[in-house]
Structure formats: C-alpha cells, structure tokens
From TrEMBL, chain A:
Name of the encoding gene: pyrR
Highest rank taxon of the organism: Bacteria
Keywords carried by this UniProt record: Glycosyltransferase, Transcription, Transcription regulation, Transferase
GO process terms (BP): regulation of DNA-templated transcription
MF terms (GO), sorted A to Z: uracil phosphoribosyltransferase activity
Entries under Pfam families matching the protein: Pribosyltran (PF00156)
Protein name: Bifunctional protein PyrR
TrEMBL record, chain B:
Gene Ontology terms describing biological process: 'de novo' pyrimidine nucleobase biosynthetic process; 'de novo' UMP biosynthetic process; amino acid metabolic process
Assigned EC number: 2.1.3.2
Subunit structure: Heterododecamer (2C3:3R2) of six catalytic PyrB chains organized as two trimers (C3), and six regulatory PyrI chains organized as three dimers (R2).
A UniProt-annotated Pfam family: OTCace_N
Family membership: Belongs to the aspartate/ornithine carbamoyltransferase superfamily. ATCase family.
GO CC terms in record: cytosol
Domain Aspartate/ornithine carbamoyltransferase carbamoyl-P binding: start-end pairs: 6-149
Keywords: Pyrimidine biosynthesis, Transferase
This protein's name: Aspartate carbamoyltransferase
Annotated binding of L-aspartate, by residue: 86, 169, 224
Function: Catalyzes the condensation of carbamoyl phosphate and aspartate to form carbamoyl aspartate and inorganic phosphate, the committed step in the de novo pyrimidine nucleotide biosynthesis pathway.
Binding residues for carbamoyl phosphate: 58-59, 108, 136, 139, 265-266
UniProtKB/TrEMBL annotation, chain C:
Enzyme class per UniProt: hydrolase
GO molecular function: allantoinase activity; dihydroorotase activity; zinc ion binding
Protein name per Swiss-Prot or TrEMBL: Dihydroorotase
PROSITE patterns tied to this protein: DIHYDROOROTASE_1, DIHYDROOROTASE_2
Residues the record lists as binding substrate: 62-64, 94, 279, 310, 324-325
Protein family according to the UniProt entry: Belongs to the metallo-dependent hydrolases superfamily. DHOase family. Class I DHOase subfamily.
Co-factor(s): Zn(2+)
Gene: pyrC
InterPro entries cross-referenced by the UniProt entry: DHOase (IPR004722), DHOase/Allantoinase_Hydrolase (IPR050138), DHOase_cat (IPR024403), Dihydroorotase_CS (IPR002195), Metal-dep_hydrolase_composite (IPR011059), Metal_Hydrolase (IPR032466)
Length: 198, 314, 430
C-alpha cells in the first residue's frame, strides 16, 4: 500500500470496519432521535467515502436517505504555506446546511486540526443548528480541544506512527493499518490510488 | 501532481500538466465564489502588492477580488502616486516595497521584461499582469479556462486569433498557451498588425482573410483594437477595420454551429465586435471570461504561494 | 632615453614583416629593427613569446567627455583603451555639448594631452547639435585637428542634408562616417526585428532601417565624390551593398564591432539583458557569419568597438528604457584573437590590417610601421594568456560589457605610445 512506510499491524479489517460503521449509524440515530433534520458531510479524501457508507447504513436501519455532502478543507488549513496540496478536491454540499444537524465524518482523528479547518469551512457555507463529529478511528494526540461524538475504535498510537484507512472502493481493500513513519515524513492520509468514482 | 513554480511570468515555462493543475484548481474555487461568504482564509497573513505601473481597471480589480477572497492583505501601488513618476528607478521601488516584508508582487508595466527584473530584485513570487507588448499570462489562463469549460477539452480545437497581434501582450501568452495545450492556431490580422515572426509565437497559419478562416474555427478570439497605442495608423479607419476584420452579424453564418466567441475586453462595439456577436447568448463567452479571471487568479495565487506538496494531517 | 624590445615576434603586414627580432626605440621613434641589437644604456625588455604589432587603433569610441563624466571620461576611457592594447582612439562627437565647433575639439585634445593614456583623434559632428539640419563648423574643426566627421548616434535623416554635408566636406581631405539608421523605419526599435522582437514583445529594429541608409549614402557618395565610411555595419545585405560600391570603385569603407560578429539576437533571453541592448541591434546568426566572412575577405576594413559606457544604474532598469550601447575597448583584441585568429579564420596580418593599418588610413593619420623612422606606437600581445572577462578588471568606469564571463585567450600586455609605456605587464603606467 505504501512505499515509504512499513506496515506494523492491521488494527481493523474489513469486517471490523463494517461492524463499526453499523454501530456508529445506530449511535447517530439514537443520539439524534432519528434521521430528521440530519445530514452527513464527509471530509475528503476518505471521510467522504465513510460518510457514504454511513448514509447507506442509516437508510438500511431507518429507511431514510439523509443528505450527503463532501467537504474539501484545502483552503482552510493552518499549515498552507508549508504543506499546500496542489490537488484540491471539490467541496460538494448540494443542500442548504442552515438549521440542519450536520454530522462531520472523517476517517482518523489525530491532532484535531483538520476538524478545526472543517468547522471553519462549514461555517462559511451556512449556519447549521448543530455539528457533531463521527470518526472511524481516534488515535489520540490532540492539539486542539476537539472530541468526537461517535468513534468506531480508539487506537492508541505513537506520534512516530501513521494510522491509515484503506477502503475497498478506492484502495481495493478495506483495513485500518498502523505504519511506521520514516524520519522527516509527515503523518497523513494515503493518496488515492484510483480516481474517485464520480 | 507536482507544481513547483514560484513565478507566473512566462507561460512558455509551464507544461500542459501545470496549466491543467491551474485550471482544475480554478474550478474548485467556483464553489467559494458562488456562496454567500465568498472568502476562504487560505492566504491569511500573506501580503500581495498590486504594482500597476500602467493604468488598468479590469485586471487590477480581478486580482484584488481574488486576493481578498483568499484573505490576503493587498496593497495597491501605482497610478499617479507611482514612485517612478518621481524619478525613482524600478529597482529602488521594488527594494522599497520588499522592505515591507511582502510575499508576492502582481505587476503590470508598460515595458517588456519588467516582471522578470522584479523577480530577480525582490526574491518574492511575481505574477505578470501584463508587461509591455510581451506577455499577459493570467489572461491566457482565463481564456483557456473559459474555452475548457465551454468545449470540455482542448482536443482537436482550432482557435482563430483575430486583430492586433503585434501590439498584443494577450497574444504573447495566449498563442503559446494554446499550442502547449495542443490546439491548432490561426492568426488573422491585417499585415500592418502582424509581428515580424508570428510562427515564433506558435501560429500554425497566418492569413488576412477573415471570411476564409472563420468556417474552420471552433473558437474565435477577437482582440481589442488598441487605439491608444498606435504609432501611425495601421488601417485607414475604424469603419474599414470593421468591414475587413470585424465579427459582424453577417459573418455569423460563416461560423460553425458550435463555434464560440472570446474577447479579452474592453470591447470596442462596432469595431472588432458587433453587439450581435458580443451579446450572442450561444456564442459569446465574454462574461464567462471575466468570471474565469477571478477563478484562475485565485488558483494562481493559491498554487504559487503554497509550499511543498505533502500529505495531509488527520 | 633608449628602449630595447627584445626577442618578440614582430608582425607588420605593411612591410611583410613576421619574424623574431629586436626593436630599438629612441626619442619616440623606432631607430632600428634587427637581430641581436645592442645599446649603450637604456631600458631593455625581454618579450620572448610575445608578439609586437603596430599600435592598435579603435576608430569608434565614446568617452562621454565633456558632459557625461559619470559614465566615462577621457582619463578613464583612454586607460581602458591602453588596457585593451590600443595606442589611439577616435572619439565620437555626441558629447554634451556636442563636438560641433573648434572649441569643443580643442577641449577634447587638451584633456587628452593632459590626462590621456592614448592618442585621441577627435571626430567632429556633421551637423550642428547632431540635429541633421544645419552644417557644423566643419572647416574650423578641421583646422583645429578634427580630421573626420560623423553624426554617430543618429543617421542624417534628410537625404538633401546628407548630400550637403558630403559636398561641403569634400573640400577637405576627410571622410564622412555614417551611422546608418532610417528613423521612420526604426522608430522605437529595441532589438532586431524578427525572432527577437516577436519573442520579447518589443518594437523591432529592422535590418532594412540600416540597409536603406547604406544604399542612400553610397548613392550620395557616387553623387558627391566624398569618401564615405559606414559605421558599425551589422547585416549581410548591408555588406553586399558596400562590396558592390567598392567593386564600382567608390571611396567607401566600413567597420564592424566584435559584438556584432560574436553575439546574435539569440543571446537576449527572457532575462532581457540590457548589456546586450546596442544600436544597431544584435542581428541574426546568418548576419554575424557574413560579417566575419566580410572581415576575412576584406570587404570590412576595420574592427571598432563602439565603446559605449553607461553607469550601472542606467543599465539596471527596464530594457526599453535602458540606453543603447556596450563597452568594448578592454575585450576587443582578446575576442578577435580568440574567435578569429586562434580559430584560424584570419591571420595576424589581417587582424593588424583591420585594427591598426586601415583605421589610420581612414582617419587620415600617419601610418605606423615596425621599421626605422616610424613613430614608436606599438602593442605587445601575449597570445597564450588565458583570462576571464570580469567587471573588476576594467579600467573603464563602466561595466556594461556584453562579454562578462567570457573565457578568452590572448591579450595585450604592454603598450607603447611614442616610445613611452602606457601599459606594462597588464598594468597601466601612471
């Protein structure tokens, strides 16, 4: 999967992910007393895919298809000057978020900076009634006062490790892997090996 | 996708991939420009100087909007207050500006080569907003963007550029850029308004017969007749220019059904473009070009002022 | 006081001399040339491995004095000349004020005598203030020692005025030196019209703007009979015109600069190097090749530098606003040695012809020969000296050379003017 890092362990396999998504879907519905006024917004490039899985799961459980959007936070990052990514993915939220309860979805919660940027981006798009956070993996090491409302799995990790989610849809396999980071490299999401199906 | 340019001065230094990166980034900025809060914090804390040593309203406002929507602090420098009016040399002016600790200079100048000079002196990112009769790369990029949006790709496109080629910095960037993207380019102009060697710019064909050229074209790019810039008139009068080189209503029937019409603005109505064509709902993409100007300038600022391409923190 | 130059290879095509021998100089004149010469007392210099030629003459320089001494003055310019191996130069009249009367001629001569390090031949203007309208005080200037006339920097635009200049000048033993530029074609031309002007987006300076005036002036030479010298010729077709005039027997000569031979319009890149902004502009590679051929076959009579010094700040600006011109005195000989003599394109004899003999003839100066009785204006060349052109090495006040960084082989090491050293071992003698 990754040339620069060594896979140390697989902490979730495809079945684990499936079970965690199912539980999170239930928790989201339970906490919000159903799917009314609810919308999911995934953060590209893995959170949006996870959000899509959650939307399907919610539909299975509740029979309601909640609105789904995706959010690119490139323009809101706090480390733009040092780590700008020239590959910008489009934000696509095809509904008004005003007054909605938005569940932000991301793959791995780490420093919290991505979520900070995502919150700013959301606020520039509209005024949701509430924002909740769902992540598949919480690996700790927060640098900002941010906490997830729905967590698939807590994975204690070292800052010299990278925790990455791979999904069948884009990576050909679903798993959460812990990898060693080479000195000088930064933690980050895996690059998309395939173009997103659009 | 690597993008490792510091300056946008000479479009011929950009590859097709570089240009597509800019166009695709520009597209993502549409979302920002079409919502209520048309602003992202990306360039917060960056200072961009708009050094317009020659009058410009359109290009400067387009850059200003792009900078503001990226949250950069921008300083407009130029006009009648220009230091050069007081006899200060360009080099001294640029050194003075750099003492303010700035990050980028957007420069428009009467004289060719000034952006490169500024880049050498200043060390900051430089964007050429038009230098003399030389280049105007962001204009070329916004033209490419508009054509790309309209046509979907650059494959098998035949673009005709009509009018004052020799005095046009737009052509200095546009024709090479079209060639980089693989288009076929025909230059159509009175011989008095042709540069010595249009082939050096990249023109595949050169003609002075508009009527013969029009049926072949997918895109007709009408240049502005720059009346203020002539040393000795290169055509007898505006009426004759319109007769020979104007895109008139009658010439509509010579165009391919899906041919579109571009113009860098401001339009001289009744000279190079009749109102029928300028306002043609299906053919004219002139206002799309203006909008594209904000998008590609946001993209250029974003890409040029950004750092290395690296992973994304979770 | 006697001076003995020993063991140098002496080359003088005027007398068919090319051998290792000694030169004995006394009272500013060569008294004896021969083998194993001796003298009772005096200075002896061993020049083994060196070449001695008749003193080189650059018949086209701008010393900016009077009026623009921040660029150059007669003291610094003449030191640059000596440093480049020249024993004499001809200064152009486009100073401030213009050298268009006898007072100005006397000023330049007096300064040269007081502070100069080479002989200075003063060219007077053809027209008052170089405006091309009214005749300058040509007769008075001639009487005060200006042997030649030119409106260098401008072409005389009006054909009738040029005819008047040539008709009037023809009463003296002189030559009209013409800077050929038709302003109605050249206008604000910055670089050669063609590839460079298109690529750089600047107004072109077409070859025809020069050729048309060459053709006109040759016609006027035919009409008036006045000798004509075409300055800094740059194009192949211009050269063809001169060749045809010579074949016809007209008194026409011409000159070329090293930069027009060894640089082309292609050297001006997107960096817009103002050091390469010259007038006439750098032309095409084809033109440059034709100029070299013309020099080799004798169509071109003289090599000149058009040494045009400017301050750093004047050149360090927008290309279209920077002044025209580059320096040349301190690189000319080495460029010719490197690119033409070492390369086998011309021999030393042809080089000396173009850099010493012909310029004196055209300027109506006494010839200098390496033989007894001749004035001892001599240039000593080390043909093997390898060096790199560096700004810090210049005696000129100006740094606007188009050849900075060039690696050259061969340069002047010693220069004698009237038997006195102006340069010894590469250093100006103060």
């Amino acid at each position: 999967m990754n040339d620069e890092s060594m896979v140390k362990s697989v902490c979730m396999d495809a079945d684990d992910i499936e079970r965690a998504v199912t539980r999170m879907a239930h928790q989201i519905l339970e906490a919000n007393k159903g799917a009314e006024n609810l919308a999911l917004v995934g953060i590209v490039t893995r959170g949006d895919l996870l959000a899509k899985m959650l939307v399907h799961k919610i539909e299975e459980i509740e029979g309601v298809k909640v609105p789904l959007g995706k959010l690119d936070i490139s323009f809101y990052r706090d480390d733009f000057a040092t780590h700008m990514s020239p590959e910008v993915h489009s934000t696509d939220i095809p509904f008004s978020i005003d007054g909605m309860t938005i569940v932000l979805v991301d793959d791995v919660l780490y420093t919290g900076r991505t979520i900070r940027a995502a919150l700013d981006a959301l606020m520039d798009i509209g005024r949701p009634a509430a924002v909740e956070l769902a992540v598949l993996v919480d690996r700790g090491h927060r640098e900002l006062p941010i906490r997830a409302d729905f967590v698939g799995k807590n994975v204690p990790s070292s800052s010299s490790e990278n925790v990455r989610l791979f999904l069948e849809e884009v990576d050909g396999i679903s798993a959460v892997e812990i990898l060693d980071i080479e000195p000088g490299k930064r933690a980050g999401a895996a690059a998309l090996t395939k173009k997103e199906g659009e | 996708m690597a993008f490792d340019h510091k300056h946008l001065i000479d479009i011929t230094e950009y590859s097709a991939d570089d240009i597509m990166t800019i166009l695709e980034t520009a597209k993502t900025f549409k979302q920002v420009n079409e919502r209520r809060i048309k602003k992202v914090p990306t360039l917060k804390g960056f200072t961009v100087v708009n050094m317009f040593n020659e009058p410009s309203t359109r290009t400067r406002s387009s850059f200003e909007i792009a900078e503001k929507r990226l949250s950069a602090d921008s300083l407009n420098f130029g006009g009648s207050s220009t230091a050069t009016v007081k006899g200060e040399s360009l080099v001294d002016t640029v050194k003075t500006l750099c003492s303010y600790k700035i990050d980028c200079i957007v420069v428009r100048d009467r004289w060719a080569g000034v952006p490169r000079k500024i880049a050498d002196v200043s060390g900051v990112s430089v964007i050429d907003a038009g230098d003399g009769k030389h280049q105007h790369p962001t204009q070329a990029l916004l033209d490419l963007y508009s054509i790309w949006e309209e046509k979907g790709s650059f494959d098998n496109l035949h673009v005709g550029v009509v009018g004052d080629i020799s005095h046009s910095r737009v052509c200095g960037s546009l024709i090479p850029a079209l060639k980089i993207m693989g288009c076929e380019v025909t230059v159509i102009a009175p011989p008095t308004l042709l540069p010595a060697r249009p082939d050096i710019l990249g023109a595949d064909h050169v003609t002075s017969n508009l009527d013969e050229a029009l049926p072949e074209l997918d895109v007709v790019y009408m240049l502005r007749i720059q009346r203020e810039r002539f040393e000795g008139a290169p055509y007898p009068n505006l009426r004759e220019y319109n007769l020979l080189y104007g895109l008139t209503e009658e010439r509509d029937k010579l165009l391919k059904p899906d041919a579109c019409v571009c113009h860098p603005g401001p339009i001289n109505r009744g000279v190079e473009l009749d109102s029928f064509m300028a306002d043609h709902p299906k053919r004219s993409i002139i206002l799309d070009q203006v909008y594209a100007g904000v998008l590609v300038r946001m993209a250029a600022l974003y890409l040029l002022l950004g750092g290395s391409n690296d992973g994304i923190d979770a | 006081m006697a001076l003995m130059l020993k063991n140098a290879r002496l080359i003088d095509p005027q007398i068919g001399l090319d051998e290792v021998a000694d030169i004995l100089i006394r009272d500013g004149k060569i008294v004896e040339v021969g083998h194993d010469l001796t003298m009772e007392k005096g200075v002896e210099r061993d020049l083994s491995g060196k070449i001695v030629t008749p003193g080189l003459v650059d018949m086209h320089v701008h010393f900016r004095d009077p009026g623009q001494e921040q660029k150059e003055d007669i003291a610094s310019g003449s030191r640059a000349a000596a440093h480049g191996g020249f024993t004499a130069v001809c200064t152009m009249p486009n100073t401030s004020p213009v050298v268009d009367d006898a007072v100005a001629v006397e000023y330049v001569k007096a300064r040269a005598a007081a502070v100069g390090k080479c002989r200075v031949v003063v060219a007077g203007a053809c027209s008052k203030d170089l405006k091309g309208e009214v005749l300058s005080d040509m007769g008075d200037m001639y009487a005060h020692g200006a042997p030649v006339f030119t409106d260098d920097g401008h072409g005389i635009q009006d054909a009738g005025m040029m005819r008047r200049v040539m008709d009037y000048a023809n009463q003296f033993d002189t030559v009209i030196m013409a800077h050929c530029q038709d302003d109605s074609l050249v206008a604000d031309g910055q670089v050669n019209e063609g590839v460079a002007s298109t690529r750089l987006g600047m107004v072109g300076w077409p070859a025809e703007g020069e050729e048309l005036e060459i053709a006109r002036d040759i016609a006027l030479c035919r009409l008036t009979g006045c000798p004509l010298h075409i300055q800094h010729i740059t194009t192949k077709r211009g050269l063809d015109l001169v060749a045809a005039a010579k074949a016809e027997g007209l008194p026409v000569t011409c000159e070329v600069t090293p930069h027009h031979m060894f640089l082309t319009e292609d050297a001006i890149t997107a960096e817009y190097q103002t050091a390469l902004k010259v007038n006439p502009p750098l032309r095409t590679a084809e033109d440059a090749a034709a100029l070299i051929e013309g020099l080799a076959n004798g169509t071109i009579d003289a090599i000149v530098t058009d040494h045009a010094p400017h301050t750093d700040w004047e050149k360090d600006r927008e290309f279209e606003l920077a002044p025209f011109g580059m320096t040349g005195l301190e690189t000319s000989l080495s460029l010719v040695l490197t690119h033409l003599v070492r390369a086998g394109v011309i021999d030393y004899g042809r080089m000396i012809q173009a850099m010493a003999v012909a310029p004196r003839e055209i300027l109506r100066q006494e010839p200098v020969k390496i033989e007894a009785g001749s004035v001892a204006d001599l240039t000593v060349i080390d043909p093997e000296a390898a060096w790199t052109v560096e700004v810090g090495d210049f005696y000129s006040k100006a740094n606007n050379s188009g050849f900075v960084g060039a690696e050259l082989t061969g340069r002047a090491t010693d220069v004698y003017v009237g038997g006195y050293a102006t340069m010894e071992d590469g250093k100006i003698v103060e």
